[in-house]
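Researcher: I'd like a structural prediction for the single chain below. Treat it as a standalone chain; there are no partners to consider.
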Amino acid sequence: MESAGVKVDYESLPDAVHVMHQFDPPRYAEIFTRWAASLAA
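Model: Treating it as a single chain, here is the predicted structure.
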């Protein structure tokens, strides 16, 4: 994807379960909010 010019963001969260939004909503919201803010930049 990057070679095609698409920006790729990756954050390793080895301790997070697959449905982090269900089990850790505050952490999910913080990560999602940070990502969404980067789109406007």
